[in-house]
């Protein structure tokens, strides 16, 4: 009987231990794009308790999200668009078909509160450096209005419709010139620069204003779960737990949330930072940090 009870106790302990690893609080997805079926997309976000989203897509497609409040959407400015179109999905970024938006128009949109951040900056798809001088007038506007900037780094999937795509231009080390020129700018490396993770580490160490999002990296359909674990361990051990943000990049939310929950070395506080509070700080959102954990 004693043995039987001990058996039950250890099963209960096991259950409560596993349960304690699940983050069930609200989520901030800092990397989302337009989906052809917006209604289904919204329902899926709600189902996963995603309450805040940083969205970047073709300018006109973003209109559908502006008025929504559950989740709350921050709206980006996607550029420069290779051939004037959004990679993969192919819509025109701007109605005039241009790759770069007119600077005067951008300033007006910022003043009218139509742009919350610059991004996804597509320099790599366009085939130019993250610090290309053609981007500097836009970075200057972001600095002037204290808007965060999200830049695509790392590699890309197939069929991106961008003939000048240059994988060498996704190395985060190329950002140094830009970061030195705009020291107050809040910048995040989308996809955390993977697989150029050594460069990502160097940039994070040298520039405290730089954050990363773990979209793609945390997607087990694209990146091996062990590689994600190794990368996350390295970030945490290097002391960057306050600068890692969750992003889905339209991937499978269930799998990506589970991927973070499965990382045994993370404390509950660290999970809450990754899913919610780091992004809230980065985007200067005063939200109720009632991320519930069990
Ligand atoms: Zn990207």
Question: What's the short version?
Answer:
This protein is of the alpha/beta class and 294 residues long.
Textual characterization of the structure:
The protein has an eight-stranded parallel beta sheet with strand order 1-2-3-4-5-6-7-8, with helices on both faces. The protein is α/β, with parallel strands linked by helices and 294 residues long. The protein has a single domain (23-282), classed as Alpha-Beta Barrel (TIM Barrel). Mean pLDDT is 91; it is low at 1-19. It contains eleven helices and eight strands. Zinc ion binds next to loops.
What topology does this entry show?
Elements lengths: L1 H18 L7 E6 L5 H10 L2 E6 L3 H8 L5 E8 L23 H9 L5 E5 L1 H4 L9 H9 L4 E4 L23 H6 L5 E4 L6 H10 L3 E4 L11 H13 L6 E2 L7 H9 L6 H15 L12
Parallel strand pairs: 1-2, 2-3, 3-4, 4-5, 5-6, 6-7, 7-8
The structure holds zinc ion.
**Uncertain stretches:** 1-19
Strands of the biggest beta sheet: in what spatial order? 1-2-3-4-5-6-7-8
Structural class: alpha/beta
* Percent of residues in β-strands: 5-15%
For the biggest sheet, the summary is: 8 strands, parallel
Comma- or semicolon-separated keywords:
294 residues, alpha/beta, TIM Barrel, 8-stranded parallel β-sheet, 13% strand, binds zinc ion
């Amino acid at each position: 009987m004693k043995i039987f009870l001990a058996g039950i106790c250890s099963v209960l302990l096991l259950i409560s231990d596993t349960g304690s690893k699940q983050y069930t609080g609200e989520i901030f997805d800092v990397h989302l794009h337009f989906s052809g079926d917006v209604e289904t997309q919204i329902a899926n976000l709600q189902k996963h308790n995603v309450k805040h989203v940083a969205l970047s897509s073709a300018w006109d497609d973003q209109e559908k999200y502006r008025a929504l409040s559950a989740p709350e959407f921050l709206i980006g400015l996607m550029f420069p668009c290779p051939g004037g179109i959004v990679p993969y999905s192919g819509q025109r970024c701007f109605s005039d078909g241009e790759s770069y938006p007119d600077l005067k128009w951008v300033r007006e949109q910022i003043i009218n509160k139509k742009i919350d951040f610059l991004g996804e900056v597509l320099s790599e798809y366009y085939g130019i450096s993250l610090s290309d001088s053609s981007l500097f007038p836009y970075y200057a506007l972001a600095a002037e209005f204290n808007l965060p900037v999200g830049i695509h780094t790392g590699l890309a999937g197939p069929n991106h419709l961008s003939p000048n795509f240059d994988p060498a231009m996704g190395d985060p080390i190329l950002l140094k010139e830009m970061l030195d020129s705009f020291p107050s700018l809040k910048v995040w490396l989308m996809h955390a620069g993977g697989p150029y993770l050594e460069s990502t580490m160097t940039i994070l160490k040298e520039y405290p204003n730089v954050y990363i999002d773990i979209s793609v990296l945390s997607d087990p359909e694209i990146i091996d779960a062990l590689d994600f674990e190794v990368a996350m361990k390295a970030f945490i051990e290097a002391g960057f737990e306050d600068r890692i943000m969750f992003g889905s990049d339209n991937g499978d939310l269930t799998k990506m949330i589970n991927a973070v929950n499965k990382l045994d070395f993370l404390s509950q506080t660290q999970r809450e930072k990754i899913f919610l509070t780091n992004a809230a700080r980065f985007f200067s959102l005063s939200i109720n940090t009632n991320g519930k954990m069990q």
